[in-house]
Amino acid sequence: FLQAQLHAQKFVANYDESKIPEFTLPNPLVTEAGEAVTTAKQWQETRRPEIVDLFQKHVYGRSPAACKISHKVVSTKDDAVSGKAIRREVDVFFGDTTDAHSMRLLIYTPKTDKPVAAFLGLNFQGNHSIESDPAISLGDRWVRDRRNETVKDNRATEKARGVASSRWPVEKIIDRGYGLVTIYYGDIDPDFDDGFKNGIHGAMADQTKDIPAAEKWGSIAAWSYGLSRALDYLENDAKVDGDRVAVFGHSRLGKTSLWAGASDERFKMVISNNSGCGGAALSRRAIGETVGRINTSFPHWFNANFKQYNQNENACPVDQHELIALIAPRAVYVASATGDQWADPKGELLAEIHAEPVFRLLGTDGFGVDGVATSKVAPDQPIKGGTIGYHLRTGGHDVTDFDWQQYLDFADRHLQ
Ligand code: GTR
Known about the structure:
Helices cover 30% and strands 18% of the residues. It contains twelve helices and eleven strands. A hairpin with a 2-residue loop joins strand 5 (151-152) and strand 6. Helix 7 packs across helix 8. The longest helix has 21 residues, at 40-60. The model has no long low-confidence stretch (mean pLDDT 96).
């Protein structure tokens, strides 16, 4: 009981700006040796690799080198989405044989002869949850018990069909000329703490055996690795243009899309929807969800080293503005919600503001407007004219049509 009480005291969430501890952000444009970074070449050759390495070592963990993949087409439907799209299911294997661990890609492409730009994003409840069509295979992998009829004994039921469709406006995406590729994140790595035995952690244990224990990949890194392997597949898919793929994710999967986009420069655009702590939000603000809180609730998301920064964010050699900086000069969009203070909307925008000097150094227009400041950003007024996009949507922790509207507009400017 005492233990529980101490625990609760330690993690009473703070939402009071005046109680934020004093902090100094690491400067993305100063090398570890203290040298100022003044050229794109210096950034690309010295500083960028340093920051990637710091995130691997202190935050997300080190993943194995890219494995060979193989694939198998599971199904094809030529008249999906009211006849406007082709829908395929493709199993992608983490290895060159089809007995390797696999993930199932659900791929929608508009009916056109040309390869299309596409959104790639992980989903929480299974591919069958994004559309109610009974022809989509019902996943048989472990899913979180939701205390409702969509899950029984940690397996999805028929009732799970379409339950997440409000977050996946497939028809709108197709009508705008884009493809949509989604994967159930639990195919890659089930989202619970089992000492990294299941999912690709277990399947690829051999490939990670030389990585120091404290630096081994957590689940966010594993999910990101899956996204990169999905991109390997898409690069060879005739219907999708692998050079024009936007990686998208909400919440823990927004943390994942950011790390995927930061660590894999082939993603041309990166979208973080309400990603919060360990995603777009600055850790040093320690407001809403904190590093100590997240490492306690979800010990498997980050590497073991990251635990050192519980209640000790200032000691971490990187902060999340540098994660966003790693995406430069490519397009990045961060979305917050007024009702999602747990994810620290202000800290999410500040991270972009503090990443902007890197985008400018690399010759982009940054936000595309001068003087972006947290005090000036009004709800539901997107900033989407530059390379860095942002909005603060009214409402709660979710993905809505408003969010997608902005992502599609942003994609029109960066992927078309
Ligand atoms: C919460 C967690 C957040 C966010 C969210 C989600 O419980 O505290 O960091 O990731 O889950 O993924 O929905």
